[in-house]
Design brief:
α10 crosses α11. The radius of gyration is 18 Å and the shape is globular. The chain has about 300 residues and is an alpha/beta fold. It has a single domain, classed as Ribokinase (UDP-N-acetylmuramoyl-L-alanine:D-glutamate ligase, 3-Layer(aba) Sandwich). α6 (about 175-180) links the parallel β9 and β10. The chain has a nine-stranded mixed beta sheet, sandwiched between helices. It has a four-stranded mixed beta sheet with strand order 3-2-6-7. It is built from eleven helices and 13 strands. The protein has helices spanning about 40-50, 65-75, 120-125, 125-130, 145-155, 175-180, 185-195, 200-210, 250-265, 270-285, 295-305; strands at about 5-10, 10-20, 35-40, 55-65, 85-90, 95-100, 105-110, 135-140, 160-165, 180, 215-220, 225-230, 235-240. Helices cover about 35% and strands about 25% of the residues. The structure holds alpha-D-ribofuranose. Alpha-D-ribofuranose binds near residues 14, 40, 41, 250 and 289. Alpha-D-ribofuranose binds next to β2, α1 and β7.
Length: about 300
C-alpha cells in the first residue's frame, strides 16, 4: 500500500529562458529559448512524491485563473488529492521567472501571489490529512506562520516532518524542534549556522550545529556531490549519481519528495537517501521543474547503475 505524504506549500507557473548564461544586472542577452512548465517548490515536491510512489495530498493556494486551473489539472493527472488546493479569488497564481544557463545552473525570481495567502486556517482545515500522514513535507515559499502551524500540528501528532529550508531564511528554534528531518543546501546551511559549507567537514559541522538546535536529522544537499547525512542511525556522505546536467531547477524539490516516500517506506536511512539522490539526479537531466520529476520505475532503474 502506498504511504501517505502531505505537502504544504507553494505552486507556481515557471516561465523559463534557456540561455548561454545568466544575464548580469542591467544586461540584455539574446538567443534564448522560452518554455513554460509547472513549478513551485511545494508542488514540485508533491509531484515528485506522487511519481515516486506516495499517496499525496497537497495543501496550497492558487489563483482563480488559467495558471491555477492548469496546475490543478497537472496534480490530478499525477493522482494527487487536491481537496485542499484552494482557488483564491483575490490573488493571482504564483509565477516564477527562471533563467537556465548552458551548464544547467539557474537563477529564479518568484511573484508569490496566492502562495502568500496560504494561512494557518488552511492548514487547520487539512488537520485530518496531516494528522494521518506518514510524512509532512514543507518548504519556505508560503508564510512562516503557516509553516509553523503545520509543523506544530504534525509534531503534536507524531507525524514525521521533512522541512526543506528553501528559499533560505532564518528559522526559530521552535520550528527546528518540530523538524524530524531538515534538508538545507550549502547556502541555506550557511545562512542557518554561519558555517560556510565548502567541504564535507564543514557540512558535518553545520549539521551538528543544527541538530544541537533540536532538529532530529540533518541532510545537507551538496549538488552533484550528493549529500551529507547527520542522524542517530547513520552519519556520513551519500554520493550522488553522475549525470549530464541540463537543468538543475527543482533537483532539491525532487530530492525531498522522493525522500518522503523512501523514509515512509522504512528503508534504512542510507538507502532512503540514495533513492532520493537517484530521483534528483534524473531530474537534472531534463528541462523544467515538474516535467523533470521521475516515475518510480525510472528511479529504480537508476539505482541499479
Ligand atoms: O525549486 C524550483 C522552484 O522554485 C521553481 O519551480 C520555481 O517555481 C520556484 O518556486
Amino acid at each position: 500500500m502506498a504511504h501517505r505524504i502531505v505537502v504544504v506549500g507553494s505552486s507556481n507557473t515557471d516561465m523559463i529562458i534557456q540561455a548561454a548564461r545568466i544575464p548580469r544586472p542591467g544586461e540584455t542577452i539574446l538567443g534564448g529559448q522560452f518554455s513554460m512548465a509547472a513549478g513551485g517548490k511545494g508542488a514540485n515536491q508533491a509531484v515528485a512524491a506522487a511519481r515516486a510512489g506516495g499517496q499525496v495530498t497537497f495543501v496550497a493556494r492558487v489563483g482563480n485563473d488559467v495558471f491555477g486551473e492548469q496546475a490543478i489539472k497537472g496534480f490530478v493527472a499525477d493522482g494527487i488529492d487536491v481537496k485542499h488546493v484552494i482557488k483564491d479569488p483575490d490573488a493571482p497564481s504564483g509565477v516564477a521567472l527562471i533563467f537556465v544557463a548552458a551548464d544547467g545552473e539557474n537563477s529564479i525570481g518568484v511573484a508569490s501571489g496566492a502562495n502568500g495567502r496560504l494561512s494557518p486556517a488552511d492548514v487547520q482545515a487539512a488537520a485530518d490529512a496531516i494528522g494521518s500522514a506518514d510524512v509532512l513535507v514543507m518548504q519556505l515559499e508560503t508564510p512562516m506562520e503557516t509553516v509553523k502551524a503545520a509543523a506544530r500540528m504534525a509534531a503534536s501528532r507524531k507525524v514525521r516532518v521533512i522541512l526543506n529550508p528553501a528559499p533560505a531564511q532564518p528559522l526559530s528554534d521552535d520550528l527546528l524542534k518540530c523538524a524530524s528531518v531538515l534538508t538545507p543546501n550549502e547556502t541555506e546551511a550557511e545562512l542557518l549556522t554561519g558555517v560556510k559549507v565548502d567541504s564535507e567537514a564543514k557540512a558535518a559541522e553545520a549539521a551538528k550545529a543544527l541538530r544541537a538546535r533540536g532538529v532530529g536529522m540533518v541532510i545537507v544537499t551538496l549538488g552533484a556531490k550528493g549529500v551529507y547525512v547527520s542522524a542517530d542511525e547513520f552519519t556520513g556522505p551519500v554520493p550522488g549519481f553522475v549525470v549530464k546536467a541540463v537543468d538543475s531547477t527543482a533537483a532539491g524539490d525532487v530530492f525531498n519528495g522522493a525522500l518522503a516516500v523512501s523514509l515512509a517506506e522504512g528503508r534504512p536511512l542510507a538507502d532512503a537517501v540514495r533513492f532520493a539522490n537517484a530521483a534528483a539526479a534524473i531530474s537534472v537531466t531534463r528541462l523544467g521543474a515538474q516535467p523533470s520529476a521521475p516515475k518510480r520505475a525510472e528511479i529504480e532503474q537508476m539505482l541499479k547503475r
